[in-house]
Amino acid sequence: MAGGMEVKKNVHVEEWGAYRENLEKAFRFNRRTIGYGLCFGIAVPLILYKGILAEFKLAEDLQLWKILSAKYQVVSGTIYYLKLLAGSEKNKKQYEAQVWVKPWEHNYMYLTDFKPTTSWDPSQA
Length: 125
Hints:
By secondary structure, this protein is of the alpha+beta class. Helices cover 37% and strands 34% of the residues. It contains two helices and four strands. Strands 1-2-3-4 form a four-stranded antiparallel sheet, with no helix packed on it. The radius of gyration is 27 Å and the shape is flat.
């Protein structure tokens, strides 16, 4: 070593390296490994993909019905805190949104938070 500095090997890193080398040499296709491959290589990504598509479909169906309340806070720009009534005609829900606006930057509006509220009074609709 340069400068007489010795390196102390980390036992865990060396052990992990040995596992990897042994796995390359000892891996065999069998029912178990094929099952894991199908599960984690096809089924899990497919389920995640379907879930993400459903979430985007839900967001696509949102329609703004009413702004229930609005507050603002002046920061580096303005943050608007909005309570909204949105959803389809049959299924309306209350959402909270935060929008950050910088008027000196051309068209700068950034949705920093958008989530459904847990408590909602339907009489506000």
